[in-house]
Amino acid sequence: MAWNPDQYHLYSDHRLRPALDLLSQVQLIKPLVIYDLGCGSGNVTSFLSKRWNESIVVGVDNSTEMLAKAKSDYPAIEWQHSDISEFDPSSAGHLIFSNAALHWLDDHETLLPNLLNKLIPGGVLAVQMPNNFQAPSHQLLYELAQSDRWQKRLGHLVRPAPVHKLEWYYDLLSPLVADLNLWETSYFQVLEGKNAVLEWTRGTALRPFLETLGDERERHIFEEEYAERLMEAYPQQEDGSTLYPFSRLFIVAQTADD
Ligand SMILES: C[S@@+](CC[C@H](N)C(=O)[O-])C[C@H]1O[C@@H](n2cnc3c(N)ncnc32)[C@H](O)[C@@H]1O
Q1: In the chain, how many domains are there?
Q2: What is the mean predicted confidence (pLDDT) over 189-195?
Q3: Nearest Cα to Cα of residue 94 among 50, 157, 31, 1
Q4: Atom of ligand 1 at shortest range from CA of 1
Q5: Per-residue model confidence as pLDDT tens digits over 159-185
Q6: What is the pLDDT of residue 17?
Q7: Residues 108, 112, 117, CA angle at the centre, nearest 5°?
Q8: What is the CATH number of the domain that holds 96?
Q9: Nearest CA among 128, 112, 130 for reference residue 203
Q10: pTM of the predicted structure, to 2 decimals
């Protein structure tokens, strides 16, 4: 699935804020080996590398486009092209960080304990995931993909919400770690530009649907239909901005010392 770094960074200030909120809750003084899973174009990884400038920082992603941008913008950081589901580093992590990536993977019941196993004793797993799957932006997309016209080609892309409730993560992780910090926040995002929510989803949730359609004309029709629904759900304010509340879930889990 191709990613477009430029489209993703259209709202980079809004996308960066939760990553920094997550980072602020990591209390490690000197984590020697840090992995950034689903590092994308490396913007957030560069903050990890700046905060712990003597550490080995490795960005991991399975998108060639995102990694190409990361390598060109931050040549001093180590970048690895691989899938998070196969993450099996030769050195255990002192910190495994993942911002806005793990919701692209299913089966968190297996995934998160596996990631904890890749940490040293006393290591930290820090995760932020969008939890906006019930919002009109996502529900309207799924409804459209499942409508008569598109169901055959796009229906299979609608997956059950990959992110669970905080209570679910508490039950899964608390028996496995010494310290667990879980929280959820809704960011009241004020977006600029015409049909701003469409532009936002173009960088993320809408991508797989357009890519599957392939044909330019069909993409255009699908996007127009989606845009129309979005305009109704997210009308522009009098000052021209669009309000797009966005919920995100955070996990900071520290394993026990030896
Ligand atoms: C929304 S971007 C977030 C990028 C970065 N973490 C940030 O905060 O700017 C999600 C990234 O996760 C990557 N990704 C999604 N599924 C993945 C997987 N199974 N293995 C590796 N990377 C994955 C995508 O390629 C993409 O670069």
Answers
A1: 1
A2: 92
A3: 31
A4: 25
A5: 899 999 999 999 999 999 999 999 999
A6: 96
A7: 150
A8: 3.40.50.150
A9: 130
A10: 0.93
Place of tokens 């906006």: 132
Question: What single letter denotes the amino acid at residue 199?
Answer: E
Amino acid 1: pLDDT: 59
Between the CA of 40 and the centroid of ligand 1 the distance, in Å, is 5
* 239's tokens: 């000052």
The C-alpha angle with vertex 198 and arms to 156 and 1, in degrees rounded to 5, equals 45
Let me know: does 16 contact 100? Beta carbons within 8 Å: no
Q: Name the amino acid, one letter, at 149.
A: R
pLDDT tens profile 114-149: 999 999 999 999 999 999 999 999 999 999 999 999
* Residues flanking ligand 1, CB < 6 Å: 3, 19, 38-40, 43-44, 61-63, 66, 83-85, 99-101, 104-105, 204
Residue nearest to atom 25 of ligand 1 (CA): 63
Which domain, by its residues, includes 68? Answer: 5-254
